[in-house]
Amino acid sequence: MSTGQWAVVLGASSGTGAAIALEVARSREFNVFGVHRGRYLEQAQRVEQDVAATGRRIVMHRGDAAIPEGVAQGADALLAAAGPRSVKLFVHSLASGSVGHFVSGGEEQFHPKQVERTFNAMAHSFLYWIQALVARDLLAPQARLLGLTNPLTESLLHNTGLITAAKAALEIYVRHLALELGPKGHRVNLLKFGTVMTPALQHVYSPEALAKLEAAHARMNPSGRMCTVEEVARFVSVLVGEDVDWFNGATIDFTGGMTLRLLDLVLNAPR
């Protein structure tokens, strides 16, 4: 068992989760309990080394954070490492979702197992983890509980309907949990941001497709570029502060105006 406040980061081995783990260790002096599936072992080791270099303690727990059994195992390991009332920040950064179509009638049509897996990873596990943290008395006073989402619920992308549906469910969980945990002093919010460059994205897309993706975001975003995982991580650190204590049940827009020009781009696209 360790003293001090802790941040729990699901999906801490790479991408946004890794950046958040390092940032809150450095700027907030939190110990870090990271959960990952083991897909990016080298990156997980790098996160462990980088957080340890800040002087904070880090525990990287390998398991499936998206299913009830994995949640229980992870929460038990967290209790053993951190002790009661130690978790100041909880960040749900799981991004395991299926792409396809609802009624295509072909191979791209979603299978029930894909629906279950996507909703477990991107919505239900947020609830399961918070239930586990509360049941084990792990939340520190005025804990911050944060889900992550994207703009797909307001601007649809043809093959991401299942991910979008799961994110919509996540938003409802956030709002109801904010209502239930607010009287206890805790805050539950959802942070919405646009596309960021991550190892998962680089695994899915070819270099040529990534270049096209970056160019599209440069046209779409008012800033003329994509957001970075470091920018998201720094803002998550801000959300831990007392000055933003009034945020509760909110979907906080950190997209940088990503969707403002969509209609203009469609209607005035070069022909």
TrEMBL record:
Family: Belongs to the short-chain dehydrogenases/reductases (SDR) family.
UniProt-recorded Gene Ontology molecular function terms: oxidoreductase activity
UniProt keyword Oxidoreductase, yes or no: yes
Record bears the keyword Oxidoreductase: yes
Name this polypeptide is given: Oxidoreductase, short chain dehydrogenase/reductase family protein
Keywords of this entry: Oxidoreductase
Short name of any one Pfam family annotated for the protein: adh_short_C2
Domain of life where this protein originates: Bacteria
